[in-house]
Predict the 3D structure of the following.
Amino acid sequence: MKMLKRTLLAISLASFTQVSLAAVVMIGNPATADQLTKKQAQSIYLAKSKKLPSGASVVINELSPGDPIRSEFHEKVTGKSDAQLKSYWSRLVFTGKAAAPAEHGSATALKAAVASTPGAVGYIDEADVDGSVAVLFKP
């Protein structure tokens, strides 16, 4: 009986956790915000596109490797894991094709960087979106 109660409790907690999480969204500075397609978002985060559709130069912001929001975003948008991203960006930086994105230790820091930099993009949990940033894409 105790085992059944523990199992039911674990299932209930897992269900609650899944429901309480919002979706990850790509954000941008409101002054240079454009609505993006998945292909455009992917091109930006893989440094294949260095400008937003409006023509503004892109400043890419990332959360630190291992952050669950980072993993979710890249799984849905670029299709790459943290290890694959590290290898990909190392190659781009080494060959001089791109500068590494700025990394932030928290969604709050990333959001502040995007809010204060024209052309900046990033990603956060949708629940953290406020008037300081604009949603560009929701995977």
